Amino acid sequence: MTLSRLNVGGGFPAHRDGAAPDLRAVFAQITRAVHRTFGHKPPKLVCEPGRALVSECYQLLVRVKGRKAHIILYLNDGIYGAMAEWRDIGPVKRLAIMRPSGEAVIDQVDAFTVFGPTCDSRDRLPDTVALPHTIQDWDYILISGMGAYSNVTCSPFNGYGVVRHVTIAP
Predict the structure, then answer these.
(1) Pairing assessment for the beta strands 129-132 and 109-115 based on DSSP bridges
(2) Domain extents for the chain?
(3) What's this model's pTM, rounded to 2 decimal places?
(4) Residue 86 to residues 25, 47, 125, 170, Cα–Cα distance (Å)
(5) The dihedral sign for the CA sequence 19, 103, 147, 108
(6) Residue 119's CB: how many other CB atoms inside 10 A?
(7) CA separation (Å) from 160 to 9, 61, 62, 104?
(8) What is the torsion angle, in degrees rounded to the nearest 10, for the CA atoms of residue 66, residue 71, residue 77 and residue 79?
(9) Under a CB-based contact definition with an 8 Å cutoff, are residues 76 and 117 in contact?
(10) CA Rg, the chain, in Å?
(11) What mean pLDDT is predicted for residues 67-95?
């Protein structure tokens, strides 16, 4: 049997942790593997690089609703909302914290356990999040690189998960 087409899937990296991925290197590796496997007659490739292409299309602005026991935060969004992917592919680490006045909060960081608003025990980010130790109630966290999946995975669980879209032109 000769393959005419091969779907190499998705999972291409996105800009989640501070460094933009080198997609040319990813595709070069795929090309080398295909040629190593199929020689000079490789099948046509189908790729699904959706996340890598759209990671920058959304930023998420959340608000701190409460702080408890020094390193526990409650936000107005969580796993049942726009942060659903965090439990599957890990956190976005490009965060900007600001006071309601717009003043940036740049301080030494602590590892916080972060919960969403639903009072459901699963509405917890799976890893700790490095945030300024002076973060407080009503502060905002702007999360970059959320991508389109942050929008489509929202659930109206317990009345949460409603997203208000705001378009900001550069």
Answers:
(1) antiparallel
(2) 5-54, 58-159
(3) 0.79
(4) 25, 23, 7, 27
(5) positive
(6) 10
(7) 32, 15, 13, 27
(8) -140
(9) yes
(10) 20
(11) 87
Among 9-18, 22-31, 46-55, 120-129, the least confident range: 9-18
**What does the mean pLDDT of the chain come to?**
87
Q: In sequence order, which ranges of the chain are alpha helices (DSSP H)?
A: 23-38, 50-54, 86-89, 149-152
Cα separation of the two ends of the chain: 52
Amino acid identity, residue 143? I
Cα 19 off chain centre by: 14
Residue with the larger pLDDT of the pair 92 and 66: 66
Tell me which CATH code domain 58-159 carries. 2.40.37.10
Q: What is the pLDDT of residues 2-28, one digit of tens each?
A: 889 999 887 777 776 767 778 889 889
What are the two backbone dihedrals, phi and then psi, of residue 149, each rounded to the nearest 5 degrees?
Answer: -65, -25
* Other Cβ atoms closer than 10 A to 154: 18
pLDDT of residue 43: 94
> In which residue are the tokens 């389109």 written?
148
Of the given ranges (7-11, 14-18, 68-72, 163-167), which has the lowest mean pLDDT? 14-18
